[in-house]
Design a protein that fits this description.
Distance between the termini: 37 Å
CATH class: Alpha Beta
Strand order of the largest sheet: 1-3-2-4-5
Order of helices and strands: EHEHEHEEHH
Shape: globular
Number of helices: 5
Helix content: 40-55%
Structural class: alpha/beta
Number of domains: 1
CATH architecture: 3-Layer(aba) Sandwich
Strand content: 15-25%
Length: 129
Amino acid sequence: MALVQVTEANFEETIREGIVLLDFWAAWCGPCRTFGPIFEAAAERHPDIVFGKIDTEAEQGLAAEFRIQAIPTLVVIRDGVMLAAQPGALPAAALDDLIGKVRELDMDEVRRKVDEQQRAAAASTGKDA
């Protein structure tokens, strides 16, 4: 799949299913310009994954929602569940390694653990999950 420019308008549809990698970047950011070609090459190597680019200057609401404090930041989502947020420019080998690990995840197990954490957090605050 080609790179997708992600905006608030297409965000929910973009992350709904499958593996999605989001590159939060800005045009003025040197490390972002270094990571861009690595991210684009990975998109070509992994056509079954959605590779989304989010311009933090144009999409400040999304950057705030994800609490982006450094760019580039890579956010990993699978089947609508956020799995990781990694600031900094990753080398190609590290990006491919990360993708391999995300592919191997048992998402039923991940969802079970997320549910447990949400119930525990709700119990500690005295609210229902």
